[in-house]
Amino acid sequence: MTKQIMKAGLIGLIFLCLVGCLQVDTLIKVKPDGSGTIEETFMMSKEVVQLMKGMVEQMMEGMAEPGKGPPAKQPEQKQAKESFDLFDEAKLKQEAGTKGEGVTYVSGKKITTDTFEGYKAIYAFADINKLKLNQNPSNSVPSGPGGSDSENKEEPVTFHFVGGVPATLIVKLPEEKQVKKDDAAKSAEVPKPSPAEKQQSEMMLAQMKQMFKGMKIVMAIEVEGAVVQTNATHREGSRITMMELDFGKLLEMPEKLLQFSQLEPETLEDAKKFMKDLPGIKAEMNKEVMIKFK
Hints:
Elements: H1 2-18, E1 22-30, E2 36-45, H2 46-62, H3 73-83, H4 89-95, E3 104-112, E4 116-125, E5 132-134, E6 156-162, E7 167-172, H5 181-188, H6 195-212, E8 216-223, E9 227-230, E10 235-236, E11 239-246, H7 248-251, H8 254-263, H9 268-275, E12 282-283, E13 288-293
Parallel strand pairs: 1-8
Antiparallel strand pairs: 1-2, 2-4, 3-4, 5-6, 6-7, 7-13, 8-11, 9-13, 10-11, 11-12
């Protein structure tokens, strides 16, 4: 048991350092009766996946019981590789319940591109009022054998639906963390650095560019029918984009990337607030979004 805890802790620590290399796209499709589906696409950099498989394999070798020869390591190596197959249907079925009461797993498939790999999963729900979706993408990051995601910060998005013609859907975003104005103002300032601080900043920027390379988080709602009224900031036809954060945009603005690192956002809501004015970024700042459709 101690070895399992140690292994899970090491894996979790590494993932916290590399979690930036991912792409998450969540699309909630809603019917006029309040039922619908959730389409979740989760992708992670192939470099990170391969690195994690190798690290877990090495850890399993190091934790082998005394007296066991090389042949006994082979099943552990195979298990390590299989444990980090991001497309794990058993886990996806198990996690359906974390998305809300009555949510069921429908189907899934593995997806691979030149630089990323992952999966697309489809879930069904009968009543959107019972949905509770965590917009924090780290919730989807696998913790490895024996690991747990329980310490990830939850930022739940909830819904209130009333049927009719038109039907009304209220999307409630997570409560924003309260920050002292003095602290926020101090963090937002970028003082003129000394030569040593400039060198340190350049090193930090290089590390952050690697971390956020390719990172993108999207959450959108698509209603069946026509939207007749909404206060949503970003709408295209029947699709409402609640959030589209392309962290690659930060890579094009070194000064913004430096500010982002100094602010040290603890939640996705903090990141959205900072990035909302960047070109190509879509962030819904209304705490409640109303959508009437028929």
